[in-house]
């Protein structure tokens, strides 16, 4: 990719716990272009949110950046080469929508006051000017009667509307990158569609780049340009949306796609991936997916590196082989 906006290079994040060292992110490398939407998918605990928090500079004790680097427009943000924490980037040029809108807003402050804090901090507006801008932001995310609703508290909003408020706060500083961590969690299907349509519209209007963290492959197919699949703290496959869905190369990606219900096919039962993800205090040697892979072989005990496969990259010695085919099991 020419001149990427965001570069993550061999990022490693560890957490010191009473049970031992947890290697939450293990050598993640990614790039994101201008105006691009990257889907980051994988099971819970695979390291998706921790990767996003590292990009935002939100890894605190007992966590730490154990290695690697994050660069924004070529400037070091995290890790190697950072002389001081570039706070003018976080929250202004890079913003994040956190997982749960129900708990992300302060229940003791009005929505207008919370929006006003962001507007004052990053745009320098106060008083009537800040209130006018806050109303404009609520209107931009589809909340009617914006001026009146500024004086209401979060409990007076539905879940979908609270998520819209979180999006309004995230775009208040007119960022270039928006990280959306499970932005449709706990919302019904109709509201999910509205939120995704809103994100797509904001991207087109503002020229945003988006990192979308989700479990829902249907969302990825409809909104993203490229996909990165995470498993056990590592990237196991990257590629364009079309290539990933048409020709998944890694057995884990194949399993995720096969386990998604389809409208054009009738199955007696859904395909499932047996077993559970490994604990990251003692990650398995070689391919982390090997204990659950139906096509595992002796070569899988060696470390697997991302290598070119089709239009993307896959970390598997049998890339492209249908591991879930009966003959491979």
Automatic annotation (TrEMBL):
<dbReference type="GO" id="GO:0016887">
    <property type="term" value="F:ATP hydrolysis activity"/>
</dbReference>
<dbReference type="GO" id="GO:0015833">
    <property type="term" value="P:peptide transport"/>
</dbReference>
<keyword id="KW-1003">Cell membrane</keyword>
<dbReference type="GO" id="GO:0055085">
    <property type="term" value="P:transmembrane transport"/>
</dbReference>
<dbReference type="Pfam" id="PF00005">
    <property type="entry name" value="ABC_tran"/>
</dbReference>
<dbReference type="InterPro" id="IPR050388">
    <property type="entry name" value="ABC_Ni/Peptide_Import"/>
</dbReference>
<dbReference type="Pfam" id="PF08352">
    <property type="entry name" value="oligo_HPY"/>
</dbReference>
<keyword id="KW-0547">Nucleotide-binding</keyword>
<dbReference type="GO" id="GO:0005524">
    <property type="term" value="F:ATP binding"/>
</dbReference>
<keyword id="KW-0813">Transport</keyword>
<dbReference type="InterPro" id="IPR013563">
    <property type="entry name" value="Oligopep_ABC_C"/>
</dbReference>
<keyword id="KW-0472">Membrane</keyword>
<comment type="similarity">
    <text>Belongs to the ABC transporter superfamily.</text>
</comment>
<feature type="domain" description="ABC transporter">
    <location>
        <begin position="6"/>
        <end position="257"/>
    </location>
</feature>
<dbReference type="InterPro" id="IPR027417">
    <property type="entry name" value="P-loop_NTPase"/>
</dbReference>
<dbReference type="InterPro" id="IPR003439">
    <property type="entry name" value="ABC_transporter-like_ATP-bd"/>
</dbReference>
<dbReference type="GO" id="GO:0005886">
    <property type="term" value="C:plasma membrane"/>
</dbReference>
<keyword id="KW-0067">ATP-binding</keyword>
<dbReference type="InterPro" id="IPR017871">
    <property type="entry name" value="ABC_transporter-like_CS"/>
</dbReference>
<protein>
    <submittedName>
        <fullName>Peptide/nickel transport system ATP-binding protein</fullName>
    </submittedName>
</protein>
<dbReference type="InterPro" id="IPR003593">
    <property type="entry name" value="AAA+_ATPase"/>
</dbReference>
């Amino acid at each position: 990719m020419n001149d990427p906006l965001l570069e993550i290079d061999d990022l490693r994040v560890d957490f010191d716990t009473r049970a031992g060292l947890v290697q939450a992110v293990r050598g993640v490398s990614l790039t994101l272009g201008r105006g691009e939407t990257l889907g980051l998918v994988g099971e819970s605990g695979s390291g998706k949110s921790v990767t996003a928090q590292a990009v935002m500079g939100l890894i605190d004790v007992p966590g730490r950046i154990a290695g690697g680097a994050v660069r924004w427009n070529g400037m070091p943000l995290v890790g190697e080469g950072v002389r001081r924490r570039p706070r003018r980037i976080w929250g202004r040029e890079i913003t994040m929508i956190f997982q749960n809108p129900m708990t992300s807003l302060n229940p003791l402050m009005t929505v207008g006051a919370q929006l006003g804090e962001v507007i004052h901090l990053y745009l320098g507006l106060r008083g009537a000017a800040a209130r006018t801008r806050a109303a404009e932001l609520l209107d931009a995310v589809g909340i009617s009667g914006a001026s009146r609703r500024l004086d209401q508290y979060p409990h007076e909003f539905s879940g979908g509307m609270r998520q819209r408020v979180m999006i309004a706060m995230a775009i208040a500083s007119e960022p270039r990158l928006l990280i959306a961590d499970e932005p449709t969690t706990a919302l019904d299907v109709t509201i999910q569609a509205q939120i995704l349509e809103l994100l797509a519209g904001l991207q087109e209007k503002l020229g945003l780049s988006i990192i979308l963290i989700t479990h829902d492959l249907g969302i990825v197919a409809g909104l993203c340009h490229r996909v990165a699949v995470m498993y056990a703290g590592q990237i196991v496959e990257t590629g364009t949306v079309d290539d990933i869905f048409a020709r998944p190369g890694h057995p884990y990606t194949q399993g995720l796609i096969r386990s998604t219900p389809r409208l054009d096919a009738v199955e007696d039962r859904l395909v499932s991936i047996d077993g559970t993800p490994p604990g990251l205090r003692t990650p398995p040697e070689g391919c982390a997916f090997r204990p659950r892979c139906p096509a595992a072989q002796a070569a899988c005990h060696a470390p697997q590196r991302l290598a070119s496969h089709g239009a993307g990259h896959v970390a598997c010695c049998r890339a492209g082989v249908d591991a879930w085919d009966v003959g491979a099991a």
